[in-house]
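Case study 2.
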Amino acid sequence: MVFFSSGNSTIPTFTYAGTPLELVTHFKYLGFALTRDGSMHTAAEKIADNFRSAIARVYRTGDSKGIKHRKHAMLWLFQIFASTAGFYFYGCEAWATSSLTHDSSKITPYIFHLGFLKRLLGVKKSTDTNCVLHETGQMPAFFYWFRCIIIRFWNSLLSSNNPLLEKVVQAVVANHCHCKV
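Prediction:
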């Protein structure tokens, strides 16, 4: 895959076995929507659509089981259908990294998450985000994304067969905790 951020850049012709490869403006790779410019916006919007569908499934299930008025049951359904189903986290290493340093309240999946929680609690849209998250026992989205990114990175360091990386991991652990690897 080659990304071009400039709309007027000259794109070279790539060939495979003498056959020119097709040039596309968007591509789906492992369910992850990629665009010509490498922007993660399209991918985040696709995740948001899936997340919106998962939230709708929570409401449908709650309605069909007669538990829509029970907040704790709806939160449990949210954890099953939306949060842990992977819609919120799939590909977050790529599309959510900008929200780790910027205002994540502009990220569409995060907006849907907070909207669901505020509707569930029956509070105004202007209610403070931290109050809503605390009341429902949820963490801010960037916490989950960050945890997902860091854990995958750390696990890949630990499972690598690179002697240099093993020494780096041992040095980091030795300097920051009193345990052995």
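The chain has two domains: 1-39, 40-176.
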